[in-house]
UniProtKB/TrEMBL annotation:
<feature type="transmembrane region" description="Helical">
    <location>
        <begin position="353"/>
        <end position="373"/>
    </location>
</feature>
<dbReference type="Pfam" id="PF13520">
    <property type="entry name" value="AA_permease_2"/>
</dbReference>
<dbReference type="InterPro" id="IPR002293">
    <property type="entry name" value="AA/rel_permease1"/>
</dbReference>
<feature type="transmembrane region" description="Helical">
    <location>
        <begin position="164"/>
        <end position="190"/>
    </location>
</feature>
<feature type="transmembrane region" description="Helical">
    <location>
        <begin position="253"/>
        <end position="270"/>
    </location>
</feature>
<feature type="transmembrane region" description="Helical">
    <location>
        <begin position="447"/>
        <end position="468"/>
    </location>
</feature>
<keyword id="KW-0472">Membrane</keyword>
<dbReference type="GO" id="GO:0022857">
    <property type="term" value="F:transmembrane transporter activity"/>
</dbReference>
<dbReference type="GO" id="GO:0005886">
    <property type="term" value="C:plasma membrane"/>
</dbReference>
<protein>
    <submittedName>
        <fullName>Amino acid permease</fullName>
    </submittedName>
</protein>
<feature type="transmembrane region" description="Helical">
    <location>
        <begin position="210"/>
        <end position="232"/>
    </location>
</feature>
<feature type="transmembrane region" description="Helical">
    <location>
        <begin position="136"/>
        <end position="157"/>
    </location>
</feature>
<feature type="transmembrane region" description="Helical">
    <location>
        <begin position="58"/>
        <end position="79"/>
    </location>
</feature>
<keyword id="KW-0812">Transmembrane</keyword>
<feature type="transmembrane region" description="Helical">
    <location>
        <begin position="379"/>
        <end position="400"/>
    </location>
</feature>
<keyword id="KW-1003">Cell membrane</keyword>
<keyword id="KW-1133">Transmembrane helix</keyword>
Length: 488
């Protein structure tokens, strides 16, 4: 069957989908935990690098990025119950822009969900090495061990996966809550949070300017503010494992972004304000929350505090492995990727091959960098270039999803929408604008540009595969069938 865009659909028997079944389990709280857990590691570290531009710059950048994510999440809250498929971003773009638009959007998310866990497990390994005093050469063993454990937990049934997600997310939030309660009575905001002066110099007495780098500092801080919200958009990938996606998806997404905005506000205010810490020092820290705990309770309990800090990393690692499996599963079930990757486990009905293959690819990239560049240089590339590649993929997918929302509002008004975004098309437009500006400032950094070149190479290989083979062997998955039926 030939369709627009030069794609053809292969005939499959009912057994094809029988071997690719998912199990419904998630309710609103499970979905909330999936969204918050995916992001929460960014509240433990990563965001703080933007403080080099001054606390006020980071505040305004965070507000701008929060507005972008509000526009995005309200759009997703409308789209996900209207198109309740595992494909999520790919599904939205497929219905709005055809198979090529869906595929390019799916590729962007694939970059994000394959590489983000790799970066997180690198930081987990660094923490664990410090806690247990293992040699640097053992780092790859920590990576392998955490991948084996958490891929295994994700394979062993959606019920177990969501229970683990809820537990680690609550523990990570409890850790943050303890810090907020401990810091609040002791903060000295003007003395410590405002200790960055023009040019990034340290002001020993604090009380510096609100915007020491001017408007340019706000724009430069945008990519770092993204870490306070990155990956909330993965929640719609659980649509086919939600008990009632038409009822639960929108509340799950919106409660998740509300939780993250509250947490981001508190961590941005309190962490730099702790006496003995300050914005200038945190801007260079690899573990800002741990530095705050040390200032409050002393360095003598550093190892115990480090274990607490690992909770946030584990929460995001576990939940993004879940997302990676569903994202690869949906593209392969529809034939964009090799269809064998969409097979689900005979007992647990989880996309085990998608999670295993995606994790093997991530580990192979990490090991190749570690062995070819050496431990020090390899670590810098894993923690920098791979991270930036993931952010680039995310920003591109946000633009495509917001555009999909706009096009579906215009061209497919007949689609039943259990929830309608009160922000509407203007909210989606604002999302596109802020994402484009953020993307521009990511590209202004040489490290980001290097990552973009690798993303471009992955796109070239994947597009070539799709043009030569994949587009001739698509399958009428739920996403494809919905898009074709609506187009007709």
């Amino acid at each position: 069957m030939q369709q627009a865009g030069g794609v053809r659909y292969a005939q499959v028997d009912p057994a094809y989908f029988a071997r690719r079944g998912l199990r419904r389990y998630a309710g609103i709280w499970s979905l909330w935990a999936l969204g918050v857990g995916a992001v929460i590691s960014g509240h433990f570290s990563g965001w703080n690098l933007g403080l080099a531009n001054g606390w006020g710059s980071m505040l305004l950048a965070t507000i701008a990025i929060a507005v972008m994510y509000l526009g995005l999440t309200f759009s997703l809250a409308e789209l996900s119950p209207a198109l309740p498929h595992t494909g999520a971003a790919y599904s939205f773009a497929r219905t709005a822009m055809g198979p090529w638009g869906g595929f390019l959007t799916g590729l962007a998310e694939n970059v994000e969900y394959v590489l983000t866990p790799a970066v997180i497990v690198y930081f987990i390994g660094s923490y664990m090495g410090g806690i247990f005093e293992t040699p640097v050469a053992w780092q790859p063993l920590w990576w392998l061990a955490f991948y084996v454990v958490f891929v295994g937990l994700n394979i062993a049934g959606v019920e177990l996966s969501f229970k683990v997600t809820l537990v680690v997310t609550l523990l990570a939030l409890a850790c943050l809550a303890v810090f907020w309660a401990s810091a609040l009575p002791r903060i000295a905001f003007a003395r410590w949070a405002l200790d960055v002066g023009p040019g990034g110099v340290k002001l020993d007495a604090g009380h510096g300017p609100f915007l020491p780098q001017g408007l340019g500092g706000v724009l430069a801080a945008l990519p770092f503010a993204v870490w306070l919200f990155l990956a909330i958009e993965q929640l719609p990938l659980a649509a086919e494992e939600s008990v009632d996606p038409r009822r639960d998806m929108a509340p799950g997404i919106l409660s998740g972004i509300a939780t993250l905005i509250a947490s981001a506000s508190l961590i941005l205010w309190l962490n730099p304000s702790v006496p003995g810490v300050g914005a200038h020092a945190l801007a260079k820290s690899g573990e800002p929350l741990l530095d705050g705990f040390k200032a409050l309770y002393g360095a003598g309990i550093a190892k115990g505090l480090a274990l607490v800090a690992v909770l946030g990393l584990v929460a995001s690692f576990h939940t993004i492995i879940f997302a990676k499996g569903r994202q690869i599963y949906s593209l392969s079930r529809a034939g964009y990727f090799p269809s064998v990757l969409s097979l689900t486990h005979g007992r647990w009905q989880t996309p085990h091959l998608a999670m295993i293959v995606g994790s093997v690819v991530a580990l192979a990239v990490m090991y190749a960098l570690w062995l070819s560049l050496g431990a020090e240089r390899g670590a810098a590339v894993i923690g920098g270039t791979l991270l930036n590649m993931a952010v680039f993929g995310a920003m591109f997918s946000y633009i495509m999803q917001a555009v999909s929302f706009i096009l579906l509002r215009k061209n497919r008004p007949e689609i039943e929408r259990p929830f309608r975004s009160p922000l509407g098309v203007p909210g989606a437009v604002v999302t596109v604008v802020i994402a484009v500006v953020t993307l521009y400032y990511q590209l202004s950094d040489a490290t980001y540009r290097a990552g973009v070149l690798w993303v471009a190479l992955w796109y070239a290989v994947a597009v070539a595969y799709f043009a030569v083979h994949g587009r001739k062997r698509l399958i009428l998955s739920p996403e494809e069938e919905f898009a074709l039926r609506r187009a007709a």
